[in-house]
Amino acid sequence: MSATADHAEERTNLAARLGFEPGQVVQEIGYDDDVEQELRESIEAVIGQELVDEDYEDVADAVLLWFRDEDGDLTDALVDAIGLIEEGGAVWLLTPKTGRDGYVEPSDINEAAQTAGLSQTKSINAGKDWTGSRLVTPKAAKSKR
């Protein structure tokens, strides 16, 4: 196997570990030139299509929300994201790592998620400069029982 193939498999595995599946519609919010391109590409490889942007007019299976401290009110952004996903869908909140421009305190993420009615179920290293938090609605988690 070539080094390029190994690298492609590694990227695809990241998106699969995050729970993305073929055929899902993933809406991306907060895209800018600082986002983790490898993560985006790995998600697109797994779902088999491009991420849809903020103008998408249907519900998505998941939302990828890139958020920096200067982007405004995190609670409002999360409430908006909830309205974009299918019941049982997840919001992946991606924030800059400690020491990076736009870093968001974990306590701020936790408070905003709770206020928006979300629970954090998983945290991941989303690349060199980003960390990710998987957020779901508690009722969605209960309905899966």
Notes on the protein architecture:
The structure is a single chain. The model is unreliable at 1-8 and 140-145 (pLDDT under 50). The protein has one domain (3-143): Rossmann fold. It has helices at 3-17, 37-47, 74-82, 106-115, 138-143; strands at 26-29, 60-66, 85-96, 119-125, 130-136. The longest helix is centred in the first third of the chain and has 15 residues, at 3-17. Helices cover 35% and strands 26% of the residues. It has 5 helices and 5 strands. The N and C termini lie far apart (41 Å). Helix 1 packs across helix 2 and helix 3 (74-82) crosses helix 4 (106-115). The protein is α/β, with parallel strands linked by helices and 145 residues long.
Helix content: 25-40%
The poorly predicted ranges are 1-8, 140-145
* Biggest sheet strand line-up: 1-2-3-5-4
Which structural class fits the helix and strand makeup? Answer: alpha/beta
Q: Could you name the CATH homologous superfamily? A: Vaccinia Virus protein VP39
Give the second-level CATH assignment, the architecture: 3-Layer(aba) Sandwich
User: Kindly state the mean pLDDT as a whole number?
Assistant: 88
Question: Can I get a quick summary?
Answer:
With 145 residues, the chain is an alpha/beta fold. Helix content is 35%, strand content 26%.
